[in-house]
Design a protein that fits this description.
With about 300 residues, the protein is α/β, with parallel strands linked by helices. The chain contains twelve helices and twelve strands. The protein has two domains: about 180 residues, Alpha-Beta Complex (Spore Coat Polysaccharide Biosynthesis Protein SpsA, Chain A); about 70 residues, no CATH class.
Length: about 300
Amino acid sequence: MADVSVVVVTYNALPWVERALESVRGHETIVVDHGSTDGTLELVRERFPEVRVIEQENKGLGGGSNAGMRVASGDWFLLLNSDAWATDGALERLVAFGQANPEAAVVGPRLRYPDGRLQRSVRGFPTLWRLATEYLFLRKLAPRSRALNGFYGSGFAHDRPFEAEFLMGAVLLVRREAADTVGLFDEDFFMFSEETDWLYRFHQAGWKVLFTPDAEFVHVGGATTKKTWGPMFREQVRGHIRFLAKHRGRREAEQARRLLLVSLRLRGLAFPGERGRTYADTARWLAGSSVEELLA
């Protein structure tokens, strides 16, 4: 098998990080920690002394992944969330699929929740219409429709190899040669949309992003971000606007700001409790800031 370097970014990553690291043991592994205080570093150093640990200020998932990739030696980078792990033989099958498809910059596996349910990872690049279908819940009207559910891969069943626009970044196998052609993550994306931007750049450079169901990983999902959901939701919204500003221009980013503002005001009225307050607070943030201020 080709050389694979595993990069795991951690921030208070207990209890799942032990299972993540155990599942890729035997491969060069770099853990980039962003200030964990829950015993993550102590566990990694005690249980996995062979792992290289980098401690740095919190630069977001993209910035942490970049730090790991810069010191990695493999032909492939496996970017693995700290709450995800490989099932038996999954990494080997993932690499074999990548090697069999030399046009692929990025390969993603099928993801499942710990209870075995499918976790949909095939995505479509954000557009104003796709953001409307997501934030106004229009996609619920026709979950398998390309028109209403392009943001989530039009209901793709994740049961066959597929050329995707982009893949959710929980587990990504990235060809070093391809990364060398487009550069690493844009660190202006602190959290959310960093993989969207990166995979868009791969497409622009002529590479492919492929999904394969032959390799399966488990992904808990939100193990870190759910602890601070309010600020993380704001970063998700900011990521959409940053992506559109970078790739579609200031005018479309402003249109997205207005669209998200209206939709989140409606959500704030429709949902009770903390969820509704988070939507309303994010709407007020959007209302009180220009695109430039949101992205500063």
